[in-house]
Write a structure and sequence with these properties.
mainly alpha
Length: 259
């Protein structure tokens, strides 16, 4: 069977055009279009595994007194209901997946932070990733350890966000960056080891040694989490976009929640 030369040329042209379009589609370079697509992709994943509205409401209202005027009872009811929703989410497998994806996004930002302040889609995505991690650690680890080991209040762990700030109130970038990196590495390691049959068995340990070990692990995670929040705050403080101002205020409120 002899094919018509015109059809061969057309097939070749279509194949070449397809390859060429793929190259152009993926070869963005360090541009706003690239980070727009990356941010949209990860925000899409975040919304699959977390109710961003609930997390944002929880972060915004945390440690804030409710209004004593109009519809106080209704606001109190909505406030308590949202806390329950966040607690249920934080103990779910969806929350674990959301945290893993948030860490993946932070790792990308970590590797390109020298130009990250020029991309308009990054600040909202960093805020969402930060809220996912903070809400998860605030509700998941604390409640599990309190129930199993009765470690008492969070204040006994002596978390001090002030160590991440200098006398001028600026974030100590290197420290916050290091702790955020440590958190992401910890989450990645736990994800890789989750199905490992060689994990240690705690059944043979006495309650006291187990409690000490778990408190150390918990405190390390919480210290890393403060670093994540401060790192996100420092990144967004240096962004030039007007919508970054509101994001900075939300992150500053999260930092102050540790005081």
């Amino acid at each position: 069977c002899i094919r018509d030369s015109s059809s061969i040329d057309e097939d070749t042209l279509n194949k070449y055009s397809e390859i060429r379009s793929q190259v152009l589609l993926n070869n963005y370079g360090p541009t706003n279009a690239c980070w727009a697509n990356l941010s949209f992709f990860y925000v899409g994943l975040f919304t699959l595994y977390a109710d961003i509205t609930s997390l944002s409401k929880f972060a915004t209202e945390y440690n804030k007194p409710l209004s004593t005027k109009f519809h106080q009872d209704l606001k109190e009811l909505e406030h308590e209901r949202n806390i329950v929703l966040v607690e249920q989410w934080a103990r779910s497998s969806n929350a674990e997946i959301a945290v893993i994806e948030a860490c993946k996004y932070f790792t990308l930002v970590y590797k390109h932070e020298e130009t990250i302040n020029t991309y308009s889609h990054v600040p909202p995505s960093v805020l969402i990733a930060t809220m996912i991690i903070w809400c998860f650690e605030k509700k998941n680890c604390f409640y599990d350890l309190e129930r199993k080991l009765k470690i008492g209040s969070r204040e006994q762990l002596n978390l001090k966000p002030s160590k991440y700030f200098d006398r001028k109130g600026d974030v100590i970038h290197s420290l916050a960056r290091e702790q955020a990196h440590n958190y992401c590495e910890l989450i990645a390691k736990q994800a890789n080891d989750r199905d490992d049959d060689s994990q240690t068995d705690d059944d043979g340990k006495d309650l006291k040694s187990l409690k000490i070990q778990k408190i150390k692990e918990y405190k390390k995670r919480q210290e890393y989490t403060v670093g994540v929040v401060c790192y996100g705050l420092d990144l967004i403080r240096h962004c030039k976009w007007p919508h970054s101002i509101d994001i900075v205020e939300k992150l500053e409120h999260i930092v102050k929640s540790y005081d």
